[in-house]
Amino acid sequence: MTIADVARRASVSRQTVSNVLNSPGLVREETRERVRQAVEELGYRVNQAARRMRTGRSRLLAVRIEQTQDGMNVFDRFLHGLTRSAAKAGYRVILYTADDDRSEIATFDDLLGAYEPDAFVLTSTHYGDVRTSWLAERELAFVTFGRPWGSPEGDAHPWVDVDGAAGTAAATRHLLDAGHRRIGFIGWPEGSGVGDDRRNGWTRALEDAGPTTHPKLEDASLMRRANLQDAGGLERRTDGSAAEGEAAARELIAAGATALVCVSDSVALGALQAGPVPVIGFDDTPVAAAIGLTSLSQPLSDAAARCVRVLTRLLDDDSPDKPDHVLLEPSLVIRRTA
C-alpha cells in the first residue's frame, strides 16, 4: 500500500494524506478522520526512516515515568491520555526514568543522541527546577505538566496545570456547608509548589467563610483573622505517606478538628484510620473509589490532550506570540467519607 492508495480511498489529495501523517494540525478534523479510517482499512504503514529523512522529525515525544507512593499512582491516567492524544496527532511516546534533575538532564542528552525526540513533556515541576532552562537554552520544544514554581522564566515557556487551590477550597467549602467549623489540613513539607498551592485553597476558603464561623465577632476582618488563627493550629505537614497521615490526623482530632482536608489520597488513607471524622483526599485514585473516599479528581486526560496540543502547535510553528498557559480545575467527587 502506498500513500496514493490511501488518498484514493479517502477521496483526498496525496498532499492532504501527507499533512495528516506529518502535520495533522493543518487539516480539518473531519478530513483527518476520513484519512485515518482509510489508513486503518488499507493497513497502510508509514516508513518511519523515510519520513524522518523527509521531514527531519522523529514523531516522538519523551516523558518520564513517575514513582508511586503507598501503591497509588495518579500518573498512569495522565500517561494513558498523553499516549492516546499523541497517537491521534501522529506521534508516539517514549518513556524514561530518572531519580532527580541531574540524572534527568543526562537522560535528555542520551535520548537526543539515540532517538532524537521532537519534544519533551516534563512533570513534577518544583522550585529550583533546572530542567526547563536546560531545554530552553538548546531551543528544544517542551511543555511542563505543572506550573514553573518560583521560576523567573516561568512565563517564557508553555505549561498545563491543575488548580490545586481551587480544589481544596471547594473541599473546604463543602465541609463548611455541612456545618464543620474546625477543619484541619494535612499537607506536604513547606516549599512544595503543588502542596503549598493546595494548602492555599484551604486557607482561602476559611478566610472567606461567613459569620457563622465566629458568631460572637461582628467585624468581618476580625472574623477572617480569627478563622486563620484557628486554622494555624489545625495544620500538619507530612512526608506524604499514609503512616504520617494517620499520625497527623490523630494530632489534629485531639486538637479539636472535626473534619480533614488532605493533600493527597495517600495521606487521606492514613487519616481515615485516625477516627470517625469526615476526610477528603486529592487525586481520586482507584483506591479512593474502592474505599469510598471523597476526593478531588484531576482532569488528567484533558491535561494530557492540552500538552499534546501545545507541542504540536510549537512543532508546526503555529504557536501564539505568548506561550500557552493552561490552568484546569479539579472536581469534587463526594463519597461516604464526607
UniProtKB/TrEMBL annotation:
<dbReference type="Pfam" id="PF13377">
    <property type="entry name" value="Peripla_BP_3"/>
</dbReference>
<keyword id="KW-0238">DNA-binding</keyword>
<keyword id="KW-0804">Transcription</keyword>
<dbReference type="InterPro" id="IPR028082">
    <property type="entry name" value="Peripla_BP_I"/>
</dbReference>
<dbReference type="InterPro" id="IPR010982">
    <property type="entry name" value="Lambda_DNA-bd_dom_sf"/>
</dbReference>
<feature type="domain" description="HTH lacI-type">
    <location>
        <begin position="1"/>
        <end position="55"/>
    </location>
</feature>
<protein>
    <submittedName>
        <fullName>LacI family DNA-binding transcriptional regulator</fullName>
    </submittedName>
</protein>
<keyword id="KW-0805">Transcription regulation</keyword>
<dbReference type="GO" id="GO:0003677">
    <property type="term" value="F:DNA binding"/>
</dbReference>
<dbReference type="InterPro" id="IPR046335">
    <property type="entry name" value="LacI/GalR-like_sensor"/>
</dbReference>
<dbReference type="InterPro" id="IPR000843">
    <property type="entry name" value="HTH_LacI"/>
</dbReference>
<dbReference type="Pfam" id="PF00356">
    <property type="entry name" value="LacI"/>
</dbReference>
